[in-house]
Every structure is written in C-alpha cells, then in structure tokens.
Amino acid sequence: MSLLTNKVAVVTGGNSGIGYATAQELKNKGAKVVITGRDSDRVESAARELGVTGIVADVSDVSAIDSLVAKVAAQYDKVDILFVNAGIFQPAPVGQISEAMFDHQMGINFKGAVFTIEKFLPILNDGASIINLSSVNAYTGMPNTAVYAASKAALNSYTRTAATELAPRKIRVNAVNPGPVATPIFGKTGMEEAQLNGFAEAMQNRVPLKRFGTPEDIAKLVAFLASDDALFITGGEYNIDGGININPLLA
Ligand SMILES: NC(=O)c1ccc[n+]([C@@H]2O[C@H](COP(=O)([O-])OP(=O)(O)OC[C@H]3O[C@@H](n4cnc5c(N)ncnc54)[C@H](OP(=O)(O)O)[C@@H]3O)[C@@H](O)[C@H]2O)c1
Q1: For ligand 1, is residue 180 a contact (CB within 6 Å)?
Q2: Is residue 189 part of a domain?
Q3: How confident is the model at residue 1 (pLDDT cuts 50, 70, 90)?
Q4: Which terminus of the chain, N or C, has less C-beta within 10 A?
C-alpha cells in the first residue's frame, strides 16, 4: 500500500511551482488531492494535467475559503493533509512600502494562511497534518523583503501556537522554510529580466550547495511531514535551503 493511500489532501496554490510539485508527489504516494488557485483557467489546466480536483478560491477572501471548504466537504467529506502553500512575493524597500502592498502580501501570506486553517478545521480528521509553507526569509534581513519576511515570520509563530492547541486532536502543524526555489514566483514580481537574472545569480552564490532548490525537493519534505512516518513531529520548522541559513560570511 502506498504511504498516503486513503488520505485526502488539499494544496492551496497548487497550480504552479511548489504546490504543483507537491500535489503530484502526494498523488504519486496514493492521496486523493484537491488543488486551488485564483484563476480558473490555470487551476483547471493544472488539475487536468495532474489528474486531481481543481477548485478556484482566493485565500485572501474569507468567504471564498468558506465556499472552498463546502465544496471539498461535499466531494470528500473529511481532509487529512492541508498544505497551506498559496503565497506571493512582492519585494519593496523600506521607505517605499505602500499600504496596498502591505495588505495584499499579508492578506495572502499570513491572513490567508490563518483563515485557511480556521475554516478547514471543522472538516479535518483527528490526526490530520497541516504543513505551512514559510521561508528562510523569516530569519533574514534580505533587502527589499521586510513585509514578505514578516508575513512568513508571523506564519512560523502562528504554527507553534496552533501545534500546541491542536495537539489534543492529534493534528500536527509544522512549517517548511525553503531557501530559493526555481518557480514562477520571481517572474511575477514585475522585475526586469536582467534584474531577475542578477538576483538569481547573487542568490545562488550565497547557497553553499550552489543551486536553487527544485519544487520537487520541497514536495518530498512536505509529503514526509504529511505521512504517518512523521507522527511524532509537530510544532517544528524545517529549513530546506541548500544550507543558505548557515549564512557563510566567506564562501
Ligand atoms: N520560490 C521560492 O524561492 C520560495 C522560497 C520560500 C518560500 N516560498 C513560498 O512557497 C509558496 C509557493 O510559491 P512558489 O514559489 O511555488 O510560487 P508560484 O509558482 O508563484 O506559486 C504560488 C501559488 O500560489 C497561488 N496563489 C497566490 N495567491 C493566491 C491567492 N490569493 N489565493 C489562492 N492561491 C494563490 C498561485 O496561484 P495563482 O495562479 O492564483 O497566482 C500559485 O498557485 C509561497 O508561499 C512562497 O512564499 C517560495
């Protein structure tokens, strides 16, 4: 029997990048998978490619999460794995942070995550696994990431409290902190191509293993945390970053 047979998994932001690769990995391991995203064409085509269920839901809209939960409950009844992955990266230097950008980024990365969990809780099976996709940025002072980093630091803090409070139901809550991973997220920042290439090169040079992670690297860790092989793991945070958190001052 596969590791995740008979488990129902929901992956927010599953039409692209890390969410897409994780949906694939969870499905390969036997889970029934639901992916979400904001755009119906992107969600439908990814769901078709993966052979999973696709549901459109913007996590920054709490009523959309309500309707997502109702649809998942109608089709699958209960959920065993909740991968809280939907997120955006909007770099801006301190001094040029607009209120709209703050609200948008916090609204998806932090508020969206909190209310995804809040709304799914009634249909989570006891013993379910929640995995929050954070970032090593939560611990860094990387330029232009003040709000993004704060949204992930808030998520890690929330993860610890939620793990304590949900332990009586044997629901495990963990956070995964990737370093740089090659996904479309950087192309969505509005940065010019030359700027993006310079950023990628500088970033890669900081990684002791000298490469970006792949979405599949992250998917394997998430699938492990989702599985019964990780039954004694809760309230944890797992860096998966080619060693970038070591922050080598001389490489
Ligand atoms: N790539 C990295 O280097 C890196 C490093 C550390 C952490 N992360 C985190 O990893 C997660 C996944 O990012 P990724 O790199 O895989 O980027 P990605 O390819 O851009 O995927 C992001 C996913 O989130 C969805 N999403 C964004 N806003 C949403 C919303 N309001 N409601 C529902 N879905 C929404 C996107 O769907 P739409 O089609 O609707 O936009 C997309 O499916 C994010 O939380 C990100 O912060 C990424």
Answers
A1: yes
A2: no
A3: low
A4: N
Q: For 24-51, how does the pLDDT look when each residue is reduced to its tens digit (9 = 90+)? A: 999 999 999 999 999 999 999 999 999 9
Q: Which residues form the domain of 98?
A: 8-183+214-239
Does residue 49 lie within any of the structural domains? yes
- Return the CATH number at 168: 3.40.50.720
- Is any atom of ligand 1 closer than 6 Å to the C-beta of 185? yes
Tokens at 197, concatenated: 């290439």
Residue with the smallest CA separation from ligand 1 atom 17 is 185
CA atoms of 118 and 12, how far apart (whole Å):
14
Is the residue at 222 inside a domain? Answer: yes
**Domain count for the chain:** 1
> Mean pLDDT, to the nearest integer, of 143-156?
97
* pLDDT score of 251 more than 70: no
pLDDT for position 223: 98
CA of 37 from ligand 1 middle (Å) equals 9
**Contact between residue 199 and residue 164 where contact means Cβ atoms under 8 Å apart:** no
